[in-house]
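Inverse folding, one chain.
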C-alpha cells in the first residue's frame, strides 16, 4: 500500500479518522495535565580575592587555595565538587521535591570554559521553591568556602569570597517533560487511529472478495417443474374429447 492509497482510505473513512484524532488529542491533553510542572531558576556568584592596603598582592602563599591556580578556577572546581556530594544534595532538597546543578561553566556561552564562577540552576514543581533552592545553594557554597579557609588557618584579610553576580532569576516554566509526554501520547493515538482505519478497510475488502468468490462458485440450481393447479387442469382438453370438423359436423373420435 502506498502513501497516496492510505491517504485516500483515510479520507474515505473520514468519520473514523476524525474521531480517532479527537480521541488522540484528548488523551494527549490528559497526559500533559497529569505531568507535574517544572520551574527553573538560576543564579551565579564570582570568586574574588580581597585586597587590603599594605599587603603584598603577589604573596599568594598566605592562602593555600591560591597555590593551585591564581585565577581561582581550581578553587571553584573544588568548591563545586564539594557542593555536588550526596550530603549537600540531601540538605538542599530536604524541603521539597526538586533538583539543582552546580557548574563553573556557562553552558549558554559561545565557547564555554572553566571560570571562577559558580552557576546554580534549580528545577522544582513550584516557582517559589526554585528561587529558594538557588539562594540556599549559594549560601551553602559561601559558607563552605569560609569553613575551608578557616580550617587552613587563612587570615580573614586573605579570604577568597563568593560574591553574588546574578541573583535568582524569575522562575520559568519548563515545557520539556509535559510536552514530551503529551506529544508521545498524541503520536501513539495517531498511529493507532491510522492502523484501525487501514485494518477496517482491509477487512472490508477481504469480506467483499470472499462474498464475490462464494457467489461465483455456487452450482446452478435446477428448478423443478411446477404442477398445474386443479383449475388449469380442468381447462386443458382431454385426448378423448370430441373433435369438431371444419363444417360444423361432429366427427367421431
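Residues assigned per position:
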Amino acid at each position: 500500500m502506498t502513501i497516496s492509497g492510505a491517504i485516500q482510505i483515510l479520507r474515505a473513512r473520514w468519520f473514523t479518522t476524525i474521531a480517532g484524532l479527537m480521541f488522540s488529542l484528548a488523551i494527549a491533553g490528559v497526559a500533559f495535565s497529569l505531568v507535574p510542572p517544572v520551574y527553573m531558576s538560576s543564579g551565579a556568584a564570582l570568586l574574588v580575592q580581597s585586597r587590603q592596603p599594605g599587603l603584598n598582592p603577589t604573596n599568594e602563599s598566605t592562602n593555600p587555595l591560591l597555590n593551585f591556580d591564581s585565577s581561582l578556577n581550581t578553587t571553584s572546581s573544588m568548591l563545586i565538587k564539594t557542593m555536588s556530594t550526596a550530603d549537600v544534595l540531601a540538605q538542599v532538597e530536604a524541603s521539597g521535591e526538586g533538583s539543582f546543578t552546580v557548574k563553573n561553566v556557562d553552558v549558554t556561552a559561545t565557547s564555554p570554559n572553566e571560570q571562577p564562577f559558580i552557576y546554580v540552576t534549580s528545577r522544582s514543581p513550584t516557582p517559589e521553591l526554585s528561587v529558594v533552592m538557588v539562594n540556599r545553594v549559594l549560601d551553602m557554597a559561601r559558607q563552605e568556602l569560609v569553613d575551608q579557609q578557616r580550617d587552613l588557618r587563612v587570615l580573614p584579610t586573605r579570604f577568597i569570597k563568593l560574591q553574588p553576580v546574578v541573583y535568582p532569576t524569575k522562575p520559568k516554566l519548563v515545557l520539556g517533560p509535559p510536552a514530551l509526554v503529551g506529544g508521545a501520547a498524541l503520536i501513539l493515538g495517531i498511529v493507532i487511529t491510522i492502523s484501525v482505519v487501514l485494518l477496517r478497510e482491509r477487512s472490508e475488502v477481504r469480506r467483499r472478495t470472499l462474498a464475490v468468490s462464494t457467489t461465483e462458485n455456487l452450482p446452478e440450481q435446477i428448478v423443478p417443474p411446477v404442477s398445474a393447479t386443479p383449475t388449469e387442469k380442468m381447462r386443458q382438453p382431454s385426448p378423448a374429447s370430441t373433435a369438431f370438423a371444419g363444417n360444423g359436423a361432429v366427427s367421431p373420435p
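The first helix runs from residue 3 to 12. DSSP finds seven helices and seven strands in the chain.
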